[in-house]
Predict the 3D structure of the following.
Amino acid sequence: MEYGICNLAIIPLRAEANDRSEQVSQVLFGETFEITEWTERWVKIITTHDNYPGWIGRLQFIMLGHLAYRRFKQMPPPLTYRAVTQAWKIDNNSVLYLPMGSSLAFLEGNTCHIGNDKFEIIGEIGETDNLAVTATSFLNSPYLWGGRTHFGIDCSGFTQIVFKLHGVNLLRDASMQAEQGYTVTSLHDTKLGDLAFFENTDGKIVHVGIMLNNEKIIHASGKVKIDSIDEKGIYSEELKRYTHKLTVIKRVL
């Protein structure tokens, strides 16, 4: 098996080996993956943190040895906790702007080592223990299919990155996340951090959000926003109607 690591701020993960193909997710700086197939311009990968398959460009990563990959899995690196963190690439005096949740692989002091590249992380490297603060930092981020950053994010990408920053690995899609954790039987019993899932007319889970309390939910729909929720589902104050039908509430914290 071959392995790789992302050495750019963000790269698109595509459904097919084509620049015009659908973006199904994104790989953030320092995230690793297994390589399962090569073409002239593309590689097919399976991401380490959520086992999600897709295609990335051959020029958008560097190779990672087996021992380094195993070390990475055994000792997960620190994460960036600001919306944007600057990383100074020492060898060519350039700057990368890392999104929240990037992995500071093989960190020594304030210097991140990826292959032969060294990146000095500018500013304090810290943590947050307040999930509500992490989630609400994304307010007004635009909806982007496959997105995982403040500059574009989808509903399950939003829940995934927020929980990643709080030590919980969620799978990539809403229907997958709905299989994790355990069920909260009553909306009245929900608490901050519970995940609410919603179904379409065919009964398929297609949306997810984070409960702030038993009356309010934060989710990505058009943009990241806070809406009211009851037993029927999400009520949009902007649209003056219910927009999502509640299916189940799960607790993963």
